[in-house]
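Batch manifest, entry 17 of 40.
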Amino acid sequence: MRTLRCLLLLLAAAALSTAAGKTWFAYVGTYTGHGSQGIYVFRFDPATGVTVPIGLAAETENPSFLAIHPGGEYLYAANETGAGHLSAFRIDHRTGKLTPLNRVSSRGDSPCALAVDRFGRYLLAANYGSGGVGLFAIQADGSLAEASVFDQHKGSGPDPKRQAGPHAHSAAFSPDNRFALSADLGTDRIYVYRFDAALGTLAATQPSAAAAGSGPRHLAFHPNGRFAYAVNELTATVTAFGWNAGALTEIQTVSALPPDYRGPKSGAEIQLHPNGRFLYVSNRADANEIAVFAIDGSSGRLTPAGHFASGGRTPRYFGFDPTGQYLFVANQDSDNIVLFRADPATGRLTATGKTIAVTSPVCVQFSAAE
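Output type: structure tokens
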């Protein structure tokens, strides 16, 4: 196990080094109800921090979450509608444009999260509206097969408005590719499945319980494979877990809000810096900021390291560029993406003064450009 953890850290460091000499396409997923038409693309140069708009990469309805195939050839979008669909596209690495491959049912209402397994064979999708997750085989041409496995979550939580039923809100694979996970906001549970990449199967294990009424939303794994972190939307807290062969053991729960904040709570995104030293969480509602925590590499415990204004309203998502130098913060209700420099030694964020105008941005993903 220690050998695997060392390998994961070495692979992460190598990826950062390789990414530094490239330019990238930044794909932006949006909600299309206010003038947006689908997925937009920008060319990004991490050497200069400059983004150049290219335009609409693909017209598609409410592509609220995107995932890039590990081979870099394909992009997948969750079409967050009542009917619920997943769309597959081929990436043109010269122009950034997306060619539609196919669309399949997500098997539920309002899919909101996607993940591709490490070997690029399967897509995991979470349906927020109806709860439950599906597993979809990725075919040789990058298109999606219909769901081969589907698990409908059941249950509720104490908040009658937000937790009357299950609301699967995340999709993730463990770093070793042996497990799939989904945080369910409606049931206060984190579902864990044994994943067989050869057979394409999911086997449910005992879900881990979150604090009642916390509403776990998104998950992030530490690159060493020992720790996992969950942002809880309803309480705007972060829970640190030990991770061992499919078992989550709570280590600590801390507030993601500034100490003097007294407004409404709405945690959203959670990600680790690629170097594994810092954890970032976005707070929406009236907070509109990014919280930063230092991570103890031995225990996984978190220490607050700062709060930084998001530069807009409702930072639903943020993502690091492939070099780990820049954080792209997608502010859904102010129609902008704000670029920050991330200090790898302190975790602190510094606004670059660069802003990308996009209507209702809710996700940013990167693919190498030629």
